[in-house]
Design goal:
Blueprint (H helix, E strand, L loop, with lengths): L18 H11 L2 H7 L11 H14 L6 E5 L5 H9 L3 E6 L2 H13 L6 E4 L13 E6 L10 H10 E12 L4 H12 L14 H10 L3 E10 L9 H21 L9 E9 L3
Parallel strand pairs: 1-2, 1-4, 2-3, 4-5
Antiparallel strand pairs: 5-7, 6-7
The structure holds S-adenosylmethionine (SAM).
The site of S-adenosylmethionine has 22 residues, from helix 1, helix 3 and strand 2.
């Protein structure tokens, strides 16, 4: 790996950056601080960030028994997962992100935690040229693929950089989630703006097929963040009122695992993929 000093100013994306990627970088440049605070419960309505921590926790349980030489967090944001990875024992760590503000927040967090050896790289996850083929034991991509125009380039890049036998954890937004579908339909009917930034949602079956087409074996899956009280919670005041119960039920549903209907209530789908030896 190339050594990168996390405390140096990170370069701006190159001219090859597509319009979508630049738009995403600009969006996340405005959110570095909020994102950092979200993991510390320091912001108002921190509960809305509860799913982020759930997905990260599951990802970490899936990689804890893997070889610990090298790990890369793709779309690392403020670098929260990198700290946990070091606690798990990963030796060489790299975070890749397109937003320089997210990376600056990540660099501060690394400094606070005396992890200045963690490399932070400003690059498009669809083209991580500085990582050699077959060089990484583990890579994670949580909450990132939804912002890309298509899945192929990231999946191909993950397959390229993983060592044979290496593991990738990728999280997508779960298209069949009834809560999300209903809310989006409601917004469309009321001509409300969809979200702050465009993103995609994935059907679990299609995404698993795409991963297999790119040479990655599907080893495990987990649905995360259930809207267990849907349709009650579609009404915003009721949702806020019932949030503690909803979150508690969500955890129980996650543990119970992939019952046939679970895909219709969970907002996130996480896959553990392995590059065959
Ligand atoms: C929703 S945040 C998730 C951050 C972190 N993975 C987490 O779970 O907290 C998405 C991150 O992906 C980054 N990102 C989006 N598209 C990217 C791309 N094409 N290349 C690199 N990073 C990207 C954003 O800048 C942002 O920091």
């Amino acid at each position: 790996m190339i050594t990168f000093d996390p405390l140096q100013p990170v370069p701006k994306p190159t001219s090859e950056t597509t319009e979508t990627v630049q738009e995403i970088a600009d969006f996340f440049d405005k959110h570095g601080d909020t994102w950092r605070l979200a993991y510390n419960n320091e912001i108002e309505h921190w509960n809305q960030y509860f799913p982020l921590r759930r997905r990260e926790a599951w990802a970490l349980t899936q990689i804890r028994d893997e070889p610990k030489e090298t790990a890369v967090d793709l779309g690392c944001g403020t670098g929260h997962a990198l700290i946990k990875m070091r606690q798990l024992g990963f030796q060489q760590l790299m975070g890749v992100d397109i937003s320089s503000e997210m990376l600056s927040a990540a660099a501060s967090l690394m400094e606070e935690n005396q992890l200045q050896d963690v490399q932070l790289v400003n690059a498009d996850v669809q083209n991580i040229a500085l990582l050699a083929d077959d060089s990484v034991d583990v890579c994670t991509a949580l909450g990132v693929i939804e912002y890309l125009d298509e899945d192929g380039p990231l999946l191909a890049e993950i397959e390229r950089i993983l060592k044979p036998g290496g593991v990738a954890i990728i999280q997508t937004r779960n298209y069949p989630c009834l809560f999300v579908r209903t809310r989006k339909l409601g917004r469309r009917l009321l001509s409300r703006r969809e979200t702050k930034i465009a993103h995609r949602e994935h059907s679990p079956g299609n995404f698993k097929a795409a991963a297999r087409r790119h040479g990655l074996r599907v080893e495990r899956q987990r649905f995360i963040h259930y809207y267990a009280l849907f349709p009650l919670t579609i009404v915003a005041p009721l949702r806020r009122l019932l949030q503690p119960l909803d979150h508690w039920l969500s955890k129980q549903c996650e543990r119970a695992g992939a019952l046939g209907v679970s895909r219709f209530f969970a907002s996130m789908h996480v896959l553990k993929l392995r590059k065959p030896v």
